[in-house]
Amino acid sequence: MSNRDMLFSAPIEKLGDWTFDERVAEVFPDMIQRSVPGYSNIISMIGMLAERFVTPGSQVYDLGCSLGAATLSVRRNIHHPGCNIIAVDNSPAMVERCRRHVTAFKAQTPVEVREDDIRHVTIENASLVVLNFTLQFLAPDERQQVLNNIYQGLNPGGALVLSEKFSFEDTQVGELLFNMHHDFKRANGYSELEISQKRSMLENVMLTDSVDTHKARLRQAGFTHSELWFQCFNFGSLVAIKEGAAS
């Protein structure tokens, strides 16, 4: 059972910028369930997508794996021989816990958990790549190169799952969904102080894009097929498929 997220329940004098440190890792499962609408649906459906796209003898990459929820969902749903899952995160606290979670759940598909920067990971022989609320923490001018690298390392017929918090060009709709997200957090027990302090810490490190911007980047990387497959308020997930039959 996860510890309850109380990180922002008291006033913090100097907020600073958000980091995925030991304190965040300790409460992360509770935090993400109470903060990201539809998160558990996305995790379970990533497993369903893995069942469709992962091929024998190929690799799966979970880039920005945090505690390994997507990795474990994929592993539960693939039963092909010769597959390997590579889970990557740059937070030592997340990597340590992810390794523990992976070890606790035995399965035939091996998982390698790496502490690394996803910008430096070489993608090879991949049938599925997962970026689950990860790209939004990179500088906007670094995002295209990461998608280019993923496309290059995907096998024909392979897929990328890209989950993000979205911004909206229509300001009225954007404001509605922003406010509904805050209603969601209030309904899950977060106070106004917790909501505002967390938002202040995230505003410099999590810069969101519109769905159209994501699709444009995916096209530029080489994907000819991409679409939004899940959305709840201002959170959602796209799937992009590399042209060609799976080998």
UniProtKB/TrEMBL annotation:
<dbReference type="GO" id="GO:0002098">
    <property type="term" value="P:tRNA wobble uridine modification"/>
</dbReference>
<feature type="binding site">
    <location>
        <position position="39"/>
    </location>
    <ligand>
        <name>S-adenosyl-L-methionine</name>
    </ligand>
</feature>
<protein>
    <recommendedName>
        <fullName>Carboxy-S-adenosyl-L-methionine synthase</fullName>
        <ecNumber>2.1.3.-</ecNumber>
    </recommendedName>
</protein>
<feature type="binding site">
    <location>
        <position position="199"/>
    </location>
    <ligand>
        <name>S-adenosyl-L-methionine</name>
    </ligand>
</feature>
<comment type="function">
    <text>Catalyzes the conversion of S-adenosyl-L-methionine (SAM) to carboxy-S-adenosyl-L-methionine (Cx-SAM).</text>
</comment>
<dbReference type="InterPro" id="IPR029063">
    <property type="entry name" value="SAM-dependent_MTases_sf"/>
</dbReference>
<feature type="domain" description="Methyltransferase">
    <location>
        <begin position="60"/>
        <end position="158"/>
    </location>
</feature>
<dbReference type="InterPro" id="IPR005271">
    <property type="entry name" value="CmoA"/>
</dbReference>
<feature type="binding site">
    <location>
        <position position="132"/>
    </location>
    <ligand>
        <name>S-adenosyl-L-methionine</name>
    </ligand>
</feature>
<comment type="subunit">
    <text>Homodimer.</text>
</comment>
<keyword id="KW-0949">S-adenosyl-L-methionine</keyword>
<comment type="similarity">
    <text>Belongs to the class I-like SAM-binding methyltransferase superfamily. Cx-SAM synthase family.</text>
</comment>
<feature type="binding site">
    <location>
        <begin position="117"/>
        <end position="118"/>
    </location>
    <ligand>
        <name>S-adenosyl-L-methionine</name>
    </ligand>
</feature>
<keyword id="KW-0808">Transferase</keyword>
<dbReference type="GO" id="GO:0016743">
    <property type="term" value="F:carboxyl- or carbamoyltransferase activity"/>
</dbReference>
<feature type="binding site">
    <location>
        <begin position="89"/>
        <end position="90"/>
    </location>
    <ligand>
        <name>S-adenosyl-L-methionine</name>
    </ligand>
</feature>
<feature type="binding site">
    <location>
        <begin position="64"/>
        <end position="66"/>
    </location>
    <ligand>
        <name>S-adenosyl-L-methionine</name>
    </ligand>
</feature>
<dbReference type="GO" id="GO:1904047">
    <property type="term" value="F:S-adenosyl-L-methionine binding"/>
</dbReference>
<dbReference type="InterPro" id="IPR041698">
    <property type="entry name" value="Methyltransf_25"/>
</dbReference>
<dbReference type="Pfam" id="PF13649">
    <property type="entry name" value="Methyltransf_25"/>
</dbReference>
